[in-house]
Design goal:
alpha+beta, five-stranded antiparallel beta sheet, 5 helices, 14 strands, elongated
Length: 358
C-alpha cells in the first residue's frame, strides 16, 4: 500500500494563544429520538517553524573601520539572512467524515446530553466540559539599530570635504565619548551629574551616541522573528522523511518543491503493536451490533515523530496518532442509570476517553 498524506497550505501566524473552539450542549430529547450525532477526529500535526530574519546594513565608513576603530569584521554589504531557530509540533484533531456516530439514550434516562465542539467533535457526555486554556507563546524580542547616527555628527564632521576626513572626525567623536564616560566613572569629570537619575540619563545618552556612531563603521544588524505553520494529515502508513517545507538563507521559508531552500523533513513511525483477532462469525455480528448501539471512541496508537534539518534531528517526540490506533465502545446500558447518570470526558483532539465518572 502506498503512503498517503496531505500537507495543507502554510500560513503566517502571530505567536499568540489560539482560541479554543466553542462547545454546544445538545440534549437527547424526543424530537431527536433521544440520539445525538457526533464525530470522532483523525490526527493532524501542526508543525510551526520559528524563523529569524537578520538584516545587515553596512555603515558609510566601513572601509575605515579597522584603521580608526580596530574593527576587523565590519559589515561590507547589505544583505538579509534567514535562519531556522526552532520547530514546535501540536497534535490537532480534525473531524473525520468517515467516523460520525449517533449515541442513543433510553427515553427514561435522566436528561441525557452531549457537549460537542463547533466542528462536531465530542467533548463530554452528561457533564460540563472542563475549560482548556491554550498556551500562548510570544515571539523572541528582536533588535533594531540605534537611532540615525548622523543626528550626532559634529558640525566639523558634517562640513568635512571627503568621506575619509569625515570618518576621521567621527572616530575622534567616539573616542571623546569614551573618555567622557571614563571621567564620569572615575569622578574626574569637570561637571559631574548631581544625582543618581541624572547620572543614568547622562550615561545612557553617551552609550546611545557611541553605539550609533560606531555603526557608521561596523555596520548595523536588525533582527526580527516570525513563524510559519504547516499542517500534515497522515494516513495509516508510516511517513519517511517527507519534505514539509524548505528554508533558504536568502528567501526564507519556501514551498516544499522549491529547490532554492534546504528541506525540513518529517518522519512518523508507528510504534503500536499489531493485534490480529480471528473471531467467529457470531462474535463478529455481536461486535458490529455493539458498535451501532453504544458510544464509540478512539483508542489512539503511539508513534515516533522526528523532524530533521541539515542532517540533524531537531525535534523528536512520542505522538498519539488516531490513524494508527483502533476503536472501542461504551455499551448503551452504561447510560441507563436514571439517578446517577454516567459522566464521560473526552480528549477532543483525539476522540479518546479522558475520564469516566459513575
Amino acid at each position: 500500500m502506498s503512503t498517503k498524506y496531505f500537507i495543507l497550505p502554510a500560513f503566517i501566524l502571530a505567536f499568540t494563544a489560539m482560541q479554543a473552539q466553542k462547545t454546544t450542549r445538545v440534549n437527547a430529547i424526543k424530537a431527536n429520538d433521544y440520539g445525538v450525532i457526533y464525530s470522532l477526529p483523525k490526527t493532524s500535526f501542526e508543525i510551526t517553524i520559528l524563523v529569524k530574519k537578520s538584516i545587515y546594513q553596512r555603515g558609510d565608513f566601513y572601509p575605515y573601520a579597522q584603521r580608526y576603530l580596530g574593527i576587523d569584521d565590519p559589515v561590507t554589504e547589505n544583505r538579509v539572512v534567514f535562519t531556522l531557530e526552532d520547530v514546535s509540533v501540536k497534535n490537532r484533531g480534525i473531524p473525520d467524515k468517515t467516523n460520525s456516530y449517533m449515541v442513543q439514550f433510553q427515553s427514561k434516562t435522566f436528561e441525557p446530553y452531549v457537549y460537542l465542539r463547533e466542528d462536531g467533535l465530542i467533548v463530554a457526555v452528561n457533564a460540563e466540559p472542563t475549560s482548556i486554556v491554550s498556551e500562548g507563546t510570544s515571539l523572541p524580542q528582536g533588535n533594531r539599530p540605534a537611532v540615525n547616527p548622523r543626528r550626532f555628527l559634529s558640525q566639523e564632521a558634517l562640513m568635512a570635504g571627503s568621506i575619509a576626513k569625515q570618518a576621521e572626525l567621527v572616530a575622534r567623536q567616539i573616542f571623546d565619548l569614551r573618555q567622557s564616560r571614563t571621567d564620569i566613572l572615575t569622578g574626574e569629570a569637570e561637571s559631574m551629574p548631581p544625582d543618581g537619575n541624572a547620572y543614568k540619563v547622562v550615561m545612557d545618552e553617551i552609550d546611545l551616541q557611541e553605539r550609533a556612531l560606531t555603526e557608521l563603521f561596523a555596520g548595523s544588524l536588525q533582527t526580527e522573528y516570525f513563524v510559519r505553520t504547516y499542517t500534515v494529515v497522515p494516513d495509516v502508513d508510516d511517513i519517511d522523511k517527507m519534505v514539509i517545507a524548505r528554508i533558504s538563507e536568502k528567501l526564507g521559508p519556501v514551498d516544499a518543491d522549491n529547490l532554492a531552500g534546504e528541506p525540513i523533513l518529517l518522519s512518523l513511525q508507528n510504534k503500536t503493536p499489531e493485534v490480529r483477532l480471528q473471531l467467529p462469525e457470531r462474535d463478529v455480528k455481536r461486535l458490529e451490533t455493539k458498535f451501532t448501539e453504544g458510544l464509540v471512541y478512539n483508542v489512539p496508537g503511539k508513534a515516533e515523530l522526528t523532524i530533521e534539518f541539515r542532517n540533524e534531528i531537531i525535534r523528536s517526540m512520542e505522538a498519539d496518532v488516531v490513524q494508527y490506533g483502533s476503536q472501542d465502545v461504551l455499551t448503551r446500558k452504561m447510560f441507563d442509570n436514571m439517578k446517577q447518570p454516567i459522566k464521560v470526558f473526552f480528549y477532543p483532539e483525539l476522540g479518546a476517553i479522558r475520564q469516566i465518572i459513575q
